[in-house]
């Protein structure tokens, strides 16, 4: 998610769609173009820009993405971002961006409170939509977005949610191995996503700590990722949860300016009264049950001291196990339980071969990829889905499924961890 979205000033124009934006996106002569307009320009905006700018130069695509326009409230800041990342034009009102004739796809990288409004407007205007996770701040918003996406698909438009960790070669390979039956019947899934950027109680009250903007805290920010990844790898939905959530620091200094990514500065001296109330969770811990009866455990925290961006998942089945660690993102651990015990055990798979997912377009074996490549792969899959007229994954319906799990976690936590079923 990125910067707040709305603004009243007129659009700030610079360049043409065939200018620096087109070149940066790798537009190729003779191919139909796909004009991309992005709303939001901070952390996720930069990551998405990297994906759009790179994808046409790496993969052979049926349409050539063009970085048509980027939108943000601050005219000078969004213009600087456009120049840095190769966007041809800048806007300060997302409605003006949607109305542009050179925008075929709207990429939403704003805080969650604006996802529904922007997505619904873009779909109504005939645009394709990519929306950052979580899909919305409430189940009701997500339901409306999914309904609109289904209606738009009948008109030839597609919509996708940006769960980028699906796009790692290692997690994509893990899904393939599960589909092939390498694990057999699933028994356990355990997954954690841990960060520590909120440990300092003087870290300011940015939008990510305000429920009206973010929807929830670590639950939506980190928990959405691991719920989606668990359901994706397992190939089945979570049907019930029992949860605990906690807010460890309930008041924080007000912010002193625009935050960038996971950094910000305080505006005032807390002793002088310049503080605000944290209205989201700092950590969420919950157990769950999959439709097959497999059990799951989830932990999401922004207070795990020493953990910067630690996502780990392990799946145990009757025939084997798979484990993935984001800090070793070019590797997958696999145990084949059908082998004799005398030499069985977890083995390391280096996921860098050209016949591994996505890697046909990259480097020789042994040369690893990084976090930013997930956004290039995301753009590849979306462009191909648009050209083929098929639903991309994860769809808005997938995003709604995650949203229902998040809502059930909050409900369970409010009711002293009572087991809470989830409609499938």
Give the helix/strand layout:
Blueprint: H1 20-25, E1 33-39, H2 43-58, E2 64-71, H3 75-85, E3 90-91, H4 94-99, E4 105-108, H5 115-124, E5 128-132, H6 139-153, E6 159-162, H7 169-179, E7 186-194, H8 211-214, H9 218-234, E8 238-246, E9 251-253, E10 275-277, E11 283-290, E12 295-301, E13 310-317, E14 320-325, E15 331-336, E16 347-350, H10 373-388, H11 396-414, E17 420-421
Parallel strand pairs: 1-2, 1-4, 2-3, 4-5, 5-6, 7-12
Antiparallel strand pairs: 7-13, 8-11, 8-17, 9-10, 11-12, 13-14, 14-15, 15-16
Sum up the structure in keywords.
6-stranded parallel β-sheet, disordered N terminus, 424 residues, 9-stranded mixed β-sheet, alpha/beta
What does this structure look like?
- This protein is of the alpha/beta class and 424 residues long.
- It contains eleven helices and 17 strands.
- It has helices spanning 20-25, 43-58, 75-85, 94-99, 115-124, 139-153, 169-179, 211-214, 218-234, 373-388, 396-414, and strands at residues 33-39, 64-71, 90-91, 105-108, 128-132, 159-162, 186-194, 238-246, 251-253, 275-277, 283-290, 295-301, 310-317, 320-325, 331-336, 347-350, 420-421.
- The protein has a nine-stranded mixed sheet. Strands 3-2-1-4-5-6 form a six-stranded parallel sheet, with helices on both faces. Strands 9-10 form a two-stranded antiparallel ribbon.
- The two termini are 27 Å apart.
């Amino acid at each position: 998610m990125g910067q707040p979205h709305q603004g009243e000033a007129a659009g700030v124009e610079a360049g043409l769609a065939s200018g620096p934006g087109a070149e940066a996106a790798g537009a190729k002569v003779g191919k139909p173009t796909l004009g991309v307009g992005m709303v939001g320009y901070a952390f996720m905006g930069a990551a998405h820009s990297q994906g759009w700018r790179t994808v046409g130069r790496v993969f052979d695509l049926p349409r050539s993405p063009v970085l048509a326009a980027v939108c943000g409230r601050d005219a000078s800041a969004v213009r600087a971002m456009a120049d840095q990342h190769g966007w041809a034009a800048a806007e300060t009102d997302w409605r003006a961006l949607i109305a542009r004739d050179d925008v075929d796809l709207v990429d939403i990288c704003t805080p969650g409170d604006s996802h529904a409004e922007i997505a619904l407007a873009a779909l109504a205007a005939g645009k394709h939509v990519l929306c950052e996770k979580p899909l919305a701040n409430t189940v009701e918003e997500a339901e409306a977005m999914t309904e609109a996406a289904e209606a738009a698909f009948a008109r030839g438009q597609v919509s996708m949610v940006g769960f980028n960790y699906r796009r790692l070669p290692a997690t994509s390979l893990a899904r393939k191995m599960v589909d092939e039956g390498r694990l057999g019947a699933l028994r356990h899934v355990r997954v954690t996503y841990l960060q520590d950027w909120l440990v300092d109680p003087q870290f300011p009250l940015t939008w990510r700590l305000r429920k009206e903007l973010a929807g929830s805290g670590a639950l939506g920010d980190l928990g959405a990722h691991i719920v989606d990844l668990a359901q994706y790898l397992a190939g089945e939905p979570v049907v019930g949860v029992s949860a605990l959530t906690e807010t460890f620091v309930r008041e924080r200094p007000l912010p002193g300016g625009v935050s960038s990514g996971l950094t910000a500065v305080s505006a005032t001296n807390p002793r002088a009264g310049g503080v605000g109330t944290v209205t989201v969770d700092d950590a969420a811990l919950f157990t769950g049950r999959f439709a097959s009866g497999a059990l799951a455990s989830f932990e999401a925290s922004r207070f795990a001291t020493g953990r910067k961006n630690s996502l780990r998942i392990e799946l145990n089945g009757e025939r084997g196990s798979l484990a993935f660690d984001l800090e070793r993102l070019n590797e997958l651990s696999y145990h084949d339980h059908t082998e004799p015990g005398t030499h069985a055990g977890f083995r390391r798979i280096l996921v860098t071969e050209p016949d591994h997912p996505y890697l046909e377009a990259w480097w020789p074996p042994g040369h690893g990829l990084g976090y930013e490549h997930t956004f290039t792969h995301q753009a590849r899959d979306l462009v191909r889905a648009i050209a083929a007229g098929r639903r991309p994954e994860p769809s808005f319906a997938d995003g709604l499924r995650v949203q229902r799990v998040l809502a059930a976690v909050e409900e369970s936590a409010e009711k002293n961890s009572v087991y809470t079923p989830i409609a499938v």
